[in-house]
Design brief:
TIM Barrel; two-stranded antiparallel ribbon; 12 helices; about 10% strand; AKR_Detox_Biosynth; NAD(P)_OxRdtase_dom_sf; oxidoreductase
């Protein structure tokens, strides 16, 4: 695998990130410890070093499995990203949310489960719409200064809040957010409206979760196979089916799997993107790793763009209208005056 810098940092991470949400067998599904170890071995042997987990994945079992694995492997080889925010116990009213109190408690417990002295990348998991952004950023910066966290990142948060945060961090001399984790795939392109342009502006790497749309883009549902997605899910609506059919057609042209086509599309969008590929079987990670050798032709890329395109809404669509020349202030204002 090749390595990429994560956002505006010097941190080198593999071009694919291994998602470990399925490490553990709670809730009746997932990989046991032995299988999880084998998955990480396979990923590392291929050059992968970027692991994604969270304090709540499998009730903390995901972090525990990674922690046990790291005891017998080179800790400094791996870049471990985890998250805080979501409720991981019911002992007190501050066991969830973005507050400094929950951040500090959650990080200390993650460090114990991971059996490590530091977390490479700490994500705010989801915006709570309660905690002031300056409280979040000061807490993250303090953890970095203490050496318990190396880099700060953010997930599932409105673009305007992230932009406010990075601007504030730059002004105050605090550590800036270097990565943005959001759902992004051929069937979920709405981050292109605000989130991805914002990430590009701040030099943040996007780490798409569910880049295969929960398995839909693998084509397995078209083949009648069963999965964890309910039939009424929007991921299985007419639009998603139409997109998946094009993905499957292109996969047949290239002689690769549909998953490879869908994953490669997320890696070819003109911004820094490292998709998170989950696995609960060794065969799944082996298959996903093959995407690094896949190349889409411009024609194939255009087909995928067309079948999956979305309405960017205002002001995105307005900027695209004929006659609106954002690179010509005079022409733009003439147009506005005539309206």
């Amino acid at each position: 695998m090749n390595y990429k810098l994560l956002g505006r940092s010097g941190l080198k991470v593999s071009e694919l990130c291994l998602g470990t949400m399925g490490f553990g067998t709670e809730a009746g599904w997932g990989a046991d410890k032995e299988t999880s170890f084998a998955i990480m071995d396979t990923f590392a042997n291929a050059g992968g070093n970027f692991l994604d987990t969270a304090n709540v994945y499998k009730l903390g079992t995901s972090e525990k499995i990674i922690g046990e694995y790291l005891q017998n492997h080179d800790r400094n080889y791996f870049v471990v990203a985890t998250k805080y925010s979501l409720k991981d116990n019911t002992t007190n009213p501050n066991a969830s949310g973005n507050s400094r109190k929950n951040m500090m408690r959650s990080v200390e417990e993650s460090l114990k489960r991971l059996q490590t002295d530091f977390i490479d990348v700490l994500y705010l998991h989801i915006w709570d719409d309660l905690t002031p952004m300056d409280e979040v950023l000061r807490g993250l910066d303090d953890l970095i200064r203490q050496g318990k966290v190396n880099y700060a990142a953010i997930s599932d948060t409105p673009a305007w809040q992230v932009a406010k945060g990075n601007t504030m961090a730059e002004l105050m001399g605090w550590s800036q957010l270097i990565a943005l984790q959001v759902e992004y795939s051929l069937i979920q392109r709405t981050p292109e409206r605000e989130l991805i342009p914002m990430a590009k502006h701040f030099g943040m790497t996007v780490t798409p979760w569910a880049p295969l749309g929960g398995g839909v883009l693998s084509g397995k549902y078209l083949r009648g196979e069963q999965g964890r997605i309910k039939p009424e899910s929007k991921r299985l609506d007419d639009r998603s089916v139409a997109i998946t059919k094009v993905v499957v057609d292109i996969a047949e042209e290239l002689g690769v799997s549909a998953s490879h086509v869908a994953l490669q599309w997320t890696r070819s969008q003109g911004f820094s993107s490292i998709p998170i590929v989950g696995a609960t079987k060794v065969s799944q990670v082996e298959e996903n790793l093959k995407v690094i050798d896949v190349t889409l032709t411009p024609e194939q890329q255009q087909k995928l763009d067309e079948v999956s395109k979305i309405d960017l809404g205002f002001p995105g669509e307005f900027f695209k209208e004929e006659g609106v020349k954002m690179n010509s202030f005079g022409g733009f204002y003439d147009r506005v005056e005539k309206r």
